[in-house]
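Re-running the complex after MR caught last week's input typo. The corrected sequence lines follow. Everything else is unchanged.
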Amino acid sequence: MSPHRCQICGRRKHLRKDGGIAHHHVQGAPCAGIGHPPIELDDARLVDQAAQASREYLRLSDAIRELEDRRANFIDPALIRQRNASLSASIKLDRRLRRHQGWAARYARAYERDMYLQGCTWADKPPNYLIGRFLRGIDRIPDAYLTSE
Ligand SMILES: [Zn+2]
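Corrected-run output:
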């Protein structure tokens, strides 16, 4: 099993020779994470896709609201389905991004709890760039982790 995960869908995939994630499909469509580095190395694609999905949802819902305000006789059901699909994609990517950004803090909590209860931990260590952000305080650090002893 490959140790590398896709940034967008989170599936374990092998890397291509150029270091990008190999081709794969999600629900019939090619995944947006193809050819980008795995989540262990970078999360730029995930941040970008989450922002893009939320912009797409706002654009489509504004278009539909504008048609409703004009009292248009016909609103294409395909447009409404597209808006609903983009909302669903946006919610999933936002949730995934929030969980990803809390990885370091979650690991610190799990490590502390496991070491207290059983003396060892099996939690997956977060990637180094997330630990760096966590230690630089970009992610919020609970006071309990700053004081040793
Ligand atoms: Zn993927």
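None of the earlier attempt is carried over here. Residues 6, 8-9, 11, 24, 26, 31, 33 surround zinc ion (CB under 6 Å). The helical segments are 44-69, 77-101, 103-117, 128-136.
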